[in-house]
Specification:
Residues 8-71 form the DnaK suppressor protein-like N-terminal domain. It comes from Alteraurantiacibacter aestuarii. Keywords: Metal-binding, Zinc, Zinc-finger. Residues 74-106 form the Zinc finger DksA/TraR C4-type domain. By secondary structure, the chain is an all-alpha fold. It is 71% helix and 0% strand. The protein is elongated, with a radius of gyration of 18 Å. The two termini are 25 Å apart.
């Protein structure tokens, strides 16, 4: 049995950190490009990288929010695919995990 209070606190801290990171990325992407063409090319490449990072962080935000919903509905720590318990070690490493390690390997 997972300590849901601790899991919720860890997930909330993780969510806050991810949302802060996403906010910084979005702020950087909103900056106008430099009118100097050589700088503009570098900034456009940087923006492409930032857009990729934003996609990854957004995915992690969604995953963390879903984990918090599982805490609330009592299904946190149970594999969404097979119904077995997710190991404490896996949850310690990836608190947002929705699948046990065996099911995650099959995906």
């Amino acid at each position: 049995m997972t300590d849901l209070t601790k899991a919720k606190a860890v997930l909330e801290a993780q969510l806050a950190e991810l949302e802060t990171r996403l906010s910084h990325i979005e702020r950087d992407l909103a900056e106008p490009l430099d009118p100097d063409s050589s700088e503009r090319a570098v900034q456009m490449e940087d923006d492409e990288s930032l857009e990729g990072q934003a996609a990854i962080v957004s995915r992690d935000v969604a995953s963390t929010r879903r984990a918090l919903l599982r805490v609330e509905d009592g299904s946190y720590g149970t594999c969404m695919q097979c119904g077995d318990d997710i190991s404490a070690n896996r949850l310690a490493a990836r608190p947002e995990a929705a699948l046990c390690i065996d099911c995650a390997r099959k995906v």
